Amino acid sequence: MNAVTTNAVATNAATTNAATTPQEITLTPVQQLAQFAVRCRDKGTPAAVREDVLGRILDVVGNCLAGRAESAGATDPDQAVLRAVQAWGGVAESGVIGSAERLPAPSAALVNGTLAHVLDFDDTHLPSVLHPAASVVPAALAVAEATGASGEDLLTAVAAGIEVTNRLGMASYIVEIRNSLFFEKGFHATSICGTFGAAVAAGLLYGLDAERIADAMGIAASMGAGVIEANRTGGTVKRIHCGWAAHGGVVAAVLAREGVSGPPTVLEGRFGFFAAYLDGRYDADAMLSDLGERWELLRTVYKPYPSNHFTHPAIDCALALRAGGLDPEKIASVELGVAAPVLRTIAEPREEKVRPRSAYHAKFSGPFTVARALLGGGGLGLYLDDFTSETYADPVVLALADKATLVADERAGEIFPRAFAAVLRVRTTDGAVLEHRVDSSRGGPEHPLSRADLLVKFRLNAARALPEPRVEELVRAVENLLEGGTATALLTATRT
After folding, report:
1. Of 393, 397, 391, 358, which Cα lies nearest the Cα of 374?
2. What's the total number of domains in the chain?
């Protein structure tokens, strides 16, 4: 396969008259981002952006419904979060996806954001490697319902919020190290940057002006958090990261509305966001240039498999070898080559990856996901039924996982993180060596999911919670956001 190139969707991004003006150069970065957000509300966004946002909302709602259906017990994070916010109480303003439950907007954002990320099936922006929609969409849905906002206003808020999230993620991408500095330092860019994006979306829907939206982001900087050790060794806390970001963003916007202010130099200041999280290293041009003309939103790709995105090219390789006739019973050894930075997440520590602690932990295991794909997979190629309490402890899967060795691959490293690449080499018991290489995983920049693919994923996910007629009703409720639909109508259609 050819080496990965810039995402065609991004290079053909729609333009709008919302570009940064010369007068804004004197504004601080957070003020420039706030001005951009308000222009989106006042002047609108390109048609291609609005259409893209419909897909983001559809994907998040489907992931939430599947996440809710997959909850197996009281200790599941979404159930724990729901019990916590029910105990907090408060004025019922916003709905919970898949339920008749109504909660205060920050609490609804927390629950829905947790559901959106609980299966690790949410979209990914490259090369920042963060998941923007799972924080921004739940925050926007909660506030849109609480304020009675139109569907058009909801779409605009999501677009601006995701763009700000992605721009902050791009600021952290350091070309010299070919990685996000957030991840190099063990931070979860999704939850940290997502809090800013959620604050922007909520602020727009609350009707805040640019000054107050800048304040909301300044407040959000003190609320964004998340470390990613759970990716390596387990624990359920990571699954609430997007929920907490959505919650923090809504709270930040509410506090700004009530008069709390944030520092104008919250991003670049001596003790600001970039100094605290990135040791002062960041790309200001990637964050601020061509706002409203170059949409990083359109570089965000969908996941076809419900696992850590770093595992996807390996899954593609394994499915291809299996489709080519490889007999799993004749596998002697497996070598998976991936980008070096990926090894820390899906290969280390080895004892945790070859014998995952839980079905969720298995989603972050290169050996497990390759073994499962070599043994067949299901649904979309590898689907939710491949990550259950039975499969992660299956002795056949574990025996095959134990035969896998993960190594750094130079070609995959050169491509990373513009796309996720891998090479899989399998030695059989009769001495043959089979190899398959992928330079951009399915769903990635070179092979984006089509609208039809996204609908297949959504229908599979939603059908785990809703009967087929209700699934189609929900598809129409999302599409109607462009034609007078509302967040309330959408959330009502999700009720089980």
Report:
1. 397
2. 2
Residue 375 belongs to a domain with what CATH number? 3.30.1330.120
Which helix (H) or strand (E) segment is 173 a member of? strand 173-174
Conformational region of residue 280, where left means phi above 0, alpha means psi within -120 to 50, and beta covers everything else: left
**Assigned token pair, 63:** 């992931």
Residues 123 and 204 in one domain: yes
Q: Roughly what angle, to the nearest 10 degrees, separates helices 47-70 and 133-147?
A: 100
> 178-231 pLDDT, tens per residue?
889 998 899 999 999 999 999 999 999 999 999 999 999 999 999 999 999 987
Question: Within 10 A of 492 (CB to CB), how many other CB atoms are there?
Answer: 15
Is the confidence at residue 93, as pLDDT, over 50? yes
Residues 285 and 356 in one domain: no
Q: Which of 385, 420, 438 is the last residue of a domain?
A: 438
Which of 301, 320, 341 marks a domain boundary? 301
DSSP H helices, 77-225, are: 77-88, 105-117, 133-147, 151-171, 181-184, 189-205, 210-220
Structure-token pair, residue 60: 């998040």
Q: The pTM is what?
A: 0.92
Domain residues for 66? 8-301
In this structure, the number of other CB atoms found within 10 A of the CB of residue 451 comes to 11
- Encode 223-235: b = buried (16+ Cβ within 10 Å), e = exposed: bbebebebbbebe
CB burial of residue 390 (10 Å; 0-12, 13-18, 19+): exposed
Q: Are residues 149 and 253 in the same domain?
A: yes
Number of H-type helices and E-type strands within the chain: 24, 10
Q: How far apart are CA 91 and CA 434, in angstroms?
A: 60
**Spatial separation of the C-alpha atoms in residues 88 and 104, rounded to whole Å:** 10
Strand partners, 438: 422
